[in-house]
Amino acid sequence: MAGIREGGEEETEMAKVLFVEDDASLRLTQTLYLEQEGFTVTAASGRRGARKSLEQDSFDLVVTDLRLGEASGIDVLRDTRSLQPEAEIIVITGYGSVESAVEAMKEGAYDYLTKPVDPEQLVRVLRKALERRALRLQVDHLQVRCAREAGLDGFVAVSPAMRLVLSAVDDVAATDATVLIEGESGTGKELIAKLIHQRSRRAMGPFLGINCGAMPENLLESELFGHVRGSFTGAHRDKKGLFEAAGGGTLFLDEIGELSPNFQVKLLRTLQEGTIRRVGDIRETFVDVRIIAASNRDLIGLVHEGAFRQDLYFRIKVVPIHLPPLRERREDILPLAEMFVRRLSDRMGRKPPELSPAAKEKLYGHCWPGNVRELENTLERALIFNRGDRLEADDFTLEACPPHPSAGFGTAAEDARDWRVSLEEIERRHILDVLERCGGNRTKAARILGIGTNTLWRKIKRYQEASGYDPTQT
């Protein structure tokens, strides 16, 4: 495939061209000229031969006449789009058939030339097409790399709860609606926000985020809205805020529940009017940005307490997404663990070790008060100190589990009040909770639960089937 030299010049001797022309003399002369210019050329006289070549070989460029006897160059274009979508296509048409060339452009052709074709002009167009192809492939590569580094390529959603979350992400990504993501610390709220951005029409725009509880109100106002020179001590020049800097993209407001009542009023006005006013300025500036907010606090509880404005709450909660804690989606624990082992090992330049059955059971049985973030940190710590080919249960140092979650989401009291929780789910949670409190001792847990050991064994196995390991292998 074609590459780019250090000076930016295309390595045309590596570029492979499929040249489709039903006129034998033109096909021969253009093929010879292109080969003299360093291209590798495969010639075809019509659609059938072109399609056969597309099925057997790969091409950087396809050049086709629009009139090919009984067939059409549009058919060749569509075959190329179907079989080799990364190839750039140039069409050649007669002077009186420019309308057909326009149709070809709408179908995805890079450019068109009218007969008689100047060979030098054809070469120039081919080299420009190669440049665009190289840039497009580079952008695609960078997007994949950014997604991998951000963790978006390996998003785990084995559990029904997380599959529902991803379904909601797909639905809301197609819109510009404001989203509120709620969940405990470490559940992946920013990751979900990035996923929405990546799958939206704003994906090519910036994704900028700020922790609303990490700075004082006056500094937060300057960061979000910007300021003009001289508006306060140290404001030596005009500065755009994040609302403007994120124009055409997405602004992520993390921990929005930490905003002061005074600043909530300013934010509400911006969301209602779609404009901002820089600190020290009298002018309003229109902003084109999508807002995704997040909180690890129970916002509706804050509304009832008078600590969060009800009108702002409903303004940001156009589409709510709740991220369940890891203890409530245990099916995801081991797939997440294996993904983190691969990713972290890759960063460390080592072969990913396997997780022993005992290690899997220890990870699966933990309550994970720090959620996905705690799981990742636990695995990274184990990989640092164990350079072998296998991680054992003793490699994991786990924090003690609190009696009840403290973040306000998914507590036992709430579960008991939630009429939407099935009896089977309540039973599952209770069995796993008792098993955890018994340190994984099934005999003791069965005695406390008042069921037989075999019955407990079958229930645990059913709970764990979706998690990727056999509990009998301990």
Features of the shown structure:
extended, disordered C terminus, Helicase, Ruva Protein, domain 3, 46% helix, alpha/beta, 14% strand, Sigma_54_int, Rossmann fold, 3 domains, five-stranded parallel beta sheet, 474 residues, 19 helices
Can you describe this structure?
The chain is α/β, with parallel strands linked by helices and 474 residues long. The protein folds into three domains: 133 residues, Rossmann fold (3-Layer(aba) Sandwich), CATH 3.40.50.2300; 165 residues, 3-Layer(aba) Sandwich (Rossmann fold), CATH 3.40.50.300; 141 residues, Helicase, Ruva Protein, domain 3 (Orthogonal Bundle), CATH 1.10.8.60. It is built from 19 helices and 18 strands. The strands form six sheets. The protein has a five-stranded parallel β-sheet, with helices on both faces. Helix 17 crosses helix 18. The chain is extended. The N terminus and C terminus are likely disordered. Keywords: ATP-binding, Nucleotide-binding, Phosphoprotein, Transcription, Transcription regulation.
